[in-house]
Write a structure and sequence with these properties.
By secondary structure, the protein is mainly beta. It has four helices and 18 strands.
Length: about 425
């Protein structure tokens, strides 16, 4: 990351130069540098973690500029080095870059519009994933905010935010967005096709084909906050506009699979003087229709499958001292909420026998955060896992740190520590 951090340093100098030419009240910038260490036992996670790895760092610069009262610009550029699980991940990337317009501002109602690239609604933490002080522990709950894909949860589109204030009853926020995912679709599609060849090897020999990802993503977010902002209750509905399809063929077979889906997320957070309780629940519905044609005899077989995943966590944070905070969290994920132990999944193929734990992940987390001052923060956390779905799912993102042929451990552990400098 040293070369890229140098590039960010030059960008920072440019931003500071720009800041000197505009009014201080209309322009501001912030930045961060994170460097961590990760080590695990049993399975690798985010790279070769069983050996211990310092490939766990990120740096970024963001700025905010308001030329007039109702209009503002905001953007963030960053570089990332986390496990080298994606090609080119150290390249500078635009996390978000948007134009915001305040449509209306009153005592009981506000409305604003955003255009550009921004993080879409994905629970409590996706909007603030780059603000280290706002993230509990080193990483947010992995069963929802999966580190392998978290940086890609952005879209290029439009977002409408509305806030309704009801005096002593509290505030209701209602937000809508629509756009096209900003992730690298070519890399995603290549990984998905390679995974298909591996999973359907009996008839994928010498197969060729393509993947077409969905065209857009839409989401609604509804939030309620009490008058003192101590309690937040939220709901998010996210849907893919269009389908994701995969087509493959060889001399004997022609295969087509079409998938679609949506997700629902419930969130609650209560903040007191010294402790915070947070919990979220997400279920995702996936529908897939597969058609297989045996070409020599023109025999067709078609099947439709529906799947509903489930994820949730309970998190408790306590302010032990003015600078030290403790964290405890339990989180769980099930690839099929109707097959929580993976028994049905493993019964579908002899190769899956004994691998039921690939279909779920349960994690007990204990962590601590120490703030030296406004600039430096040290975080650490220990994970104890039952289940290896997080490792198994990483294969579908192109990760290669675990050899799937050698199998994955059901019980494994992980320790992380991270130092953050903010400016």
């Amino acid at each position: 990351m040293s070369k890229l951090n140098s590039t960010l340093f030059l960008i920072l100098l440019l931003v500071m130069q720009v800041a000197g030419t505009v009014h201080a009240s209309s322009f501001s910038y912030k930045g961060f540098v994170n460097q961590g260490f990760i080590i695990s036992g049993g399975n690798n996670y985010l790279g070769e973690s069983k050996k211990g790895s310092f490939d766990f760092g990120e740096a970024g610069i963001n700025f905010y500029y308001r030329p007039i009262n109702r209009l503002y610009f905001s953007a963030q550029i960053s570089t990332r080095n986390v496990g080298d699980h994606k090609s080119g991940e150290e390249d500078l990337r635009l996390d978000y870059g948007l134009l915001g317009l305040n449509l209306y501002s009153g005592n009981q109602y506000d409305a604003s519009l955003r255009l550009g690239r921004f993080k879409y609604f994905y629970g409590l933490y996706n909007d603030i994933q780059d603000i280290s002080s706002a993230i509990p522990g080193v990483m947010p709950p992995q069963i929802m905010y999966y580190e392998y894909v978290l940086p890609d949860l952005t879209i290029d589109g439009v977002q409408l935010n509305q806030s309704f204030r009801f005096d002593e009853l509290g505030t209701v926020n209602f937000d809508m967005l629509y756009g096209k995912p900003a992730a690298d679709e070519r890399e995603f599609e290549e990984n998905l096709f390679n995974d298909f060849l591996r999973d359907y090897s009996p008839y994928s020999n010498a197969a060729t084909g393509e993947v077409n990802s969905y065209d857009g993503l839409g989401a609604l977010r509804l939030q309620y906050l009490t008058p003192d902002n101590s309690l937040l209750i939220g709901y998010i509905h996210t849907v893919n506009d269009g389908t994701l399809s995969l087509t493959a063929s060889n001399s004997n077979y022609w295969f087509n699979g079409v998938g679609d889906g949506y997700s629902d997320t419930l969130s609650v957070e209560y903040v007191s003087d010294v402790w915070t309780f947070t919990s979220e629940y997400r279920t995702r519905f996936i529908k897939q229709t597969n058609t297989l044609i045996f070409l020599p005899m023109n025999l067709t077989d078609s099947a439709t499958a529906e799947l509903r995943t489930e994820a949730y966590y309970f998190q408790f944070r306590y302010q032990l001292t003015q600078k030290l905070e403790g964290l405890f969290r339990y989180e769980a994920y099930f690839a099929n909420k109707h097959d929580r132990d993976g028994a049905k999944w493993s019964s579908l193929s002899p190769a899956r026998q004994g691998k039921e734990h690939y279909q779920y992940s349960k994690d007990w987390v204990v962590g601590a955060t120490y703030e030296f001052n406004d600039s430096f923060t040290l975080k650490s956390e220990l994970h104890l896992f039952d289940g290896s779905h997080l490792n198994y799912a990483a294969i579908y993102t192109g990760a290669t740190e675990n050899d799937i042929n050698q199998g994955l451990d059901r019980y494994w552990n992980m320790f992380l520590v991270e130092l953050t400098y903010s400016f």
